[in-house]
Amino acid sequence: MAQPGKLIAEGKTKRLFKLEKSPHILVVSKNDITAKDGEKHDVMEGKAVHATATTCAVFELLKAGGIPTAFVERAGPDSFLARPCEMLPYEVVTRRIGLGSYIKRNPDVAPKTRFETLVVELFLKSKGRKFKGIKLPADDMYIAEVSPTGAIVYRPDMPVRVPANAATFIPNAKLYGKRARHPFADIEELARKVFLILEGAWRDQRWQICDLKIEFGYDVSGRLVVADVIDNDSWRLFDETGRHVDKQQYRDDMPVDSVAIDYAEVAKRVERFKALEKKPRIIIWTDNRDADVSQFYNATTRGYADFLPAYFDGFMAPELSLRQLAAILEYEKGDVVVITYSKNVNALALLFSAGTHVPVIAVPAPSTRFTVDVDIWSSLRVPTGAPVMTMLEPENATIAALGVLSARSPLAYMGRRYEMERRRLKHTDSPRIRVQ
Ligand code: C2R
């Protein structure tokens, strides 16, 4: 186990240590639970271990989903290793269900309203109602607007446009320090993706993550990463009956012993995230060795599933093709969708959908002998028991495959849902960080 060196920082729920002979820092959780700006404070037996188990499982899953994080690995029952970071002064909150301070700022929105496009909000991290010498009316001020000269922040616990909520201006020099700008667009994208991965992972257990607070930093190479911790204090989480299993219980004065039972249950359930780290598989099967299969994966679909290009002439060698697919499925064990990319008569898609259980999507490849409008009928008019989905565009076939795979895989869910919500955002008035 890593031996802690010098104490670098201590918060309400954790201590950070420098390590001898290691570039990493050690994050050691405490058993403390606090609420209401530290007014409420208790010691919860086992919390440090539950928090560490939760944070480590969450970061491992995020890593598998391609999210850059400061997390390295678990170091002990109550500690993990992380890369040192220059932290950004924001709490970044993503919401699917309207609760907590959102309802205080937007009293016209009914509590538990579901947002089909995630709401992302930023709050300014401050202590003792001060941010780098600037006095504030409250801590965790809501960042309503970022202008070319600075940020305009408001109290987080009341609507922005009421007389009692006077604006405070934070000039760029204070907000950004030595850097010219903070990457709000990158922060927002990562916050959405992190939330979607966790939403997908909890969906797998029929639980709903309602909102989530994360923090960002720059690692030593200057890369923006998700840092700090993500544990049962960081989110609001409903079980299948809609009951809070998170820190809200403690805020609402439930006895600490009862809250502890839920923290333990959450820590136990995140163990199931491990099985979700494996990316599902999309097999692109073509009957033409020279076919360009790269059209099936591009910047928006790559990374959410593993693509396996396969070549075999299903028309000429049906038994062999089926046996080869069966062997791949046996080896994979996980979730698979097959996309066939063949020209002329679509023998491959029919063969596979009749001969295996996995979903098959047929994409007619350009052919010199037939036009697509003739060829397409070989994928549309198919016998019962050999269902084939047909897509003309390769990219759409991949998106459809991600949709199928998203039923179980949080990584595919994130891939499908992120793009869908990004498109919707252009047309809805869902609140966003306003950057001028
Ligand atoms: P609010 O609705 O209060 O803004 O919180 C909360 O637990 C919740 O999941 C939104 C979400 O952010 C989390 N949060 C924290 C902290 N502040 C907000 N964990 C904090 O200061 O630690």
| The CATH topology of the largest domain | Phosphorylase Kinase, domain 1
**What is the CATH class designation of the largest domain?**
Alpha Beta
| Distinct small molecules bound, one entry per kind | ligand C2R
Strand content: 25-35%
Helical fraction: 25-40%
The best one-word shape is: elongated
Number of strands: 24
Give your account of this protein's structure:
The protein has 12 helices and 24 strands. The protein is an alpha+beta fold. It folds into 3 domains: 174 residues, Phosphorylase Kinase, domain 1, CATH 3.30.200.20; 93 residues, no CATH class; 145 residues, Rossmann fold, CATH 3.40.50.1970. Strand 13 and strand 14 form a beta hairpin. Helix 11 packs across helix 12. The radius of gyration is 25 Å and the shape is elongated. The two termini are 48 Å apart. The model has no long low-confidence stretch (mean pLDDT 92). The structure holds ligand C2R. The site of ligand C2R has 14 residues, from strand 9, helix 2, strand 16 and strand 18.
